[in-house]
Amino acid sequence: xxxDIEYIQLFMEYESDDMPVVYFYEVNLKDNRFALREIxxxxxxxxxxxxxxxxxxxxxxxxxxxxxxxxxxxxxxxxATIISKEEFDEIWNTRSYSKNLTAI
Length: 104
Fold this sequence. Notes:
By secondary structure, the chain is of the alpha+beta class. The chain contains 2 helices and 5 strands, in the order E-E-E-E-H-E-H. It has a 5-stranded antiparallel sheet with strand order 4-3-2-1-5. A hairpin with a 5-residue loop joins strand 2 (22-28) and strand 3 (34-41).
């Protein structure tokens, strides 16, 4: 199943303290790019884990590709990159993120 999973790190421009600035997605490529798990990192480095991203939504949307994020299909202020499963799992397991909060 590991080849059927993609891990994305998504940087977003800062909007407010209650909005994440970095997202991490575990994307199921065999299920229309729906996320299995999500990590949100806030400007104060608080980390929030979500293993049921779609539990309170009215309409579920698949996670865009890195290229879609980076070509601004979904708007300005996004920068995405592929990361490893190990990097995703390290943040998930430690609930800690100490790297850059911006893409630049």
